[in-house]
Amino acid sequence: MASDKRIKATMECTECKRRNYTTVKSKVNTRERLELSKFCPWDRKHTVHRETR
């Protein structure tokens, strides 16, 4: 059974605004939105990806 403390987070590229990645984060430990540097296949470079709601 899945715990309610860990949620799925969709990551969106800050440059092309496409939703490229999904990840799982802890709702208890990480209250703010995630920001990760990930590879964007449309821009063909590493860009900042932010968590969407």
Describe the structure.
Keywords: Ribonucleoprotein, Ribosomal protein. The structure is a single chain. The protein has 53 residues and is mainly β. It has a single domain (6-52), classed as Ribosomal protein L33 (Rubrerythrin, domain 2), CATH 2.20.28. Helix content is 0%, strand content 57%. The protein has strands spanning 6-13, 19-26, 35-40, 45-52. The protein has a 4-stranded antiparallel sheet with strand order 2-1-4-3, with no helix packed on it. The chain is elongated. The two termini are 23 Å apart.
For this entry, give a set of tags.
single chain, 53 residues, mainly beta, Rubrerythrin, domain 2, 4 strands, 57% strand, elongated
Q: Whole-Å distance between the termini?
A: 23 Å
What's the overall geometry?
Answer: elongated
CATH class: Mainly Beta
CATH topology assignment: Rubrerythrin, domain 2
Number of helices: 0
| Unreliable stretches covering 5 or more consecutive residues | none
Pfam families: Ribosomal_L33
Organism: Candidatus Neomicrothrix parvicella RN1
InterPro entries: Ribosomal_bL33, Ribosomal_bL33_sf, Ribosomal_zn-bd
Keywords: Ribonucleoprotein, Ribosomal protein
Summarize the structure.
The protein is an all-beta fold and 53 residues long. It contains no helices and four strands.
